[in-house]
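note to self — DONT lose this again. spent like an hour looking for the file last time. sequence + predicted structure for the chain T wanted, 526 res
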Amino acid sequence: MVATLPEKPPVRTARILIVEDEGIIAAHIASCLLKTGYSVAGIAESSEEALARVQELRPDLILMDIRIKGSMDGIETAAKVRELGDIPIIYLTAHTDQSTVDRAKLTDAFGFLTKPIHQTSLAISVEMAIHKHRAESDARNQRAWMSTVLGTMADAMVVIDGNRRIQFMNAPAERLTGWVNEDVREREIGMVLPLRESASDMEANKALVPPACPQPPCRIPRGLMARKRSGQWFPIEGEMAPSVDDGRVVGAVITFRDATARQAEENEARHQYKMQAVGRLAAGIAHDFNNLLVSILGYTDEILHASAALNDDAVRSLIEIRKAGDHAASLTQQLLKFSRKEPVLMREVNLNDVIRDTEELIRRLGGPSVVWQFRLDPSLGEVWADRGQLKQVVLNLAANARDAMPHGGTVTIETANVDVPQTGSFTNIWEAFVALTMTDMGSGMTPETAEHLFEPFFTTKPSGSGTGLGLSIVHSIVSDLGGTIHVDSEPGRGATFAVYLPVSGSGARVPLLDATELREFPVEIR
């Protein structure tokens, strides 16, 4: 018979701390660990010594007797260890009463061994505890990594299961909806993010139902509105990608965003394109019309100079023709101003100075029935602009306010330094703008009217009473200066026009907002 050497225990890297107040049992446990290839980091007899050795040795696992010396038992000591770090613990005890087991479970123990300790059961328990702890640690790290990645996404994101119940919501989604991830877990998506059609106000929550079978990501239908926790509605856009496991749809990942800024950009782009097209058309019409007017006015003047041969009715008719021609010529000049980019002198301008220079003209413009109030910020910042263009803005807005009050009233003109939140930023970044607001006490307007207010030739005045170019010219000038204009109005409550121009040298960008939502526009007055 050939003698064989005993196998060497496998070399293991885990270092184990034994907390046991009976020396013989502690030595037996240490021997069993060494035989199975584990390293004994140390032995502690009391709760105080155990906590000290944990901080000193940083073991990979602790074998903790429940009945130990010191001011705390093993379960209380384990709870303190949890505060020091993430170290798995296996309890050792000769007592297996239910109350002890229940207390031990509260500390998330990785095992429970009853005395006497056998080498095989000890080795298996230690190996399983270390494996389970590493797996849980890896899973936590993966979740933390995933949470960090998802939290840094610009888009809001919600993960739902097959029953449309929310499993996760990232930070941008929390900010956009007003909900918190912990509060929405297991809630139905339709309760947290209700949808409706913007045109008909019909419920549209079925838009966020995961498909029955695997398919590529799909867009959330256009034209939908979503409601925040606060009750405020916003236009939503985004995508939904089904989550597939073994060929089965088990949920979906929904990414979405507030479409207000994009819609404002699209509306602005369409408006600019329309303005350019109308400008080219206006230039051609004005040029041809001007040539006709030259002939009409020339012949009229020629006939009037020979008025001695005309009766009074003929002279009066010719004078009216002349007035109509002058009015048409004025309209032609407005068309030409609207259609061409005239040379401008850009420099730093104080808007208060522009208003003071035009104050007398403004008062004459309104007549005795209009009271003008001026509230000008003495510390107003300067804007980079053409002074003449700013005068046009002020005078056109003043004329519009006067026309809104045919029976008179009060118009308030104000200036202020304001801070505007940076467009498209989730961080707390504010930019400096100068605000000019003009508030009248007129009849106000509907949202539908406000939507078309800055379009060329759009007017609510009776035929022959206005050209519909004043506010279009204002919009064109303000846009060219890197600013924006908004109107806040309701029928019967007057109107407030607000112009925002970037402070000279601030590098501010245009705040893209819906023209009818001035009251919801967050600004800080400085």
